[in-house]
Amino acid sequence: MSELGLVVARYRRHSLIEDDDGNRIVCQFHGRALNPVVGDQVQWQSEPGGSGTITEVLPRESTLTRIDNRGNPEIVAANLSQLVVVLATGPAPDWFLLDRYLGAAALAGLKSVIVFNKLDDNDSPPDTLAGYRDLTDGICLTSAHQKLGLTELAACMDAERSAMIGQSGVGKSSLINALLGDKRQAVDELPDKGGHGRHTTTTSVLYGLPGGGELIDSPGVRDYAPYIADPREVERGFKEFGQFSTKCRFDDCRHLAEPECAVKAAVASGEIAERRYESFKILLELTESLRKKRR
Ligand code: GDP
Ligand code: ZN
User: Where would I find the H helices in the chain?
Assistant: First the structure.
């Protein structure tokens, strides 16, 4: 008899699932084609000895898809509702990367929150951040070290299934530890008995947050390079372009060298930030060159 379960951790060849009663079972996969990722709803069957086998992955409502080393798309998490993008005073914010993440969130139908971390005593956020007020679902100012802004951050996450992303060194681990307390350790150490890796680099984990909501922590998400298949999709990732792009002379305007482009006019008049337009062009180029590579 098969039952429903939620994938709460993914190892190389096994998943840890949670059933409706909160029991956790280490499962293997029935067949090589199955690739259950964290956040997946699955059908599974119990095996003698207390383990299980995943027989089916149910249709996904959303996915986080990145480009792997060979330039191919790879799904790293499923059924999430929000991206939490972390920036900090150091390493210096990479605003293009932020635009890329926000674009990917929009295209995947996810909400997005920006966290600006390491705002310790006397620090103030950079002016550029203010330009993002209308482009995301929330901005939180935090210091993981001084435990500032964590209540606000928890409130932004309490009704969502979030994934936390951002450059290495901005404080994601510190924030996750501050949000979870000792809960994090507990899951990392669970399925040691099968010998499939305690806290290996391939481990992705879904945590329940103490204040509500869920958080996906995954190395595949941490160095996430979002995948956009179609260059025509790129502009949908730039929310503020929408009201202008409908007024371009050509329906298929790419907003590059075309005459009577309302997007470029909006950049010239300051209604669209120059920096955002630059990000758009870089992302468009990147998407086009990846598409050529795949041909
Ligand atoms: P991750 O790579 O994004 O997971 O970042 P880590 O959580 O490993 O943090 C990187 C470094 O930044 C560590 O040395 C942390 O101690 C430090 N750090 C994290 N949060 C804060 C903060 O709020 N203030 C300051 N000053 N340093 C922080
Ligand atoms: Zn245009």
Answer: 95-107, 150-157, 172-180, 183-188, 219-222, 242-245, 262-268, 274-294
Average pLDDT of the segment spanning 111-137 = 93
**220 pLDDT more than 70:** no
Q: Please tell me the number of the ligand nearest to residue 241's CA.
A: 2
127: how many CB neighbours lie within 10 A of its CB? 7
Q: Which domain holds residue 133?
A: 63-217
Residue 158 DSSP symbol:
T
Q: Nearest C-alpha to atom 14 of ligand 1 is from which residue?
A: 169
Verify whether ligand 1 is closer than 6 Å to residue 141 (CB atom). no
Domain count of the fold of the chain:
3
Mean pLDDT over each residue of the chain, to the nearest integer? 89
**Residue with CA at minimum distance from ligand 1 atom 19:** 171
- Which ligand is closest in space to the CA of residue 235? 2
**Which of the listed residues 174, 184, 218, 221 should we mutate to test ligand 1's pocket, taking the one with most ligand atoms within 8 A of CB?**
174
Residue 184 lies in a domain: yes
For 120-132, what is each residue's pLDDT tens digit? 977 899 999 999 9
Kindly report the pTM of this predicted structure.
0.89
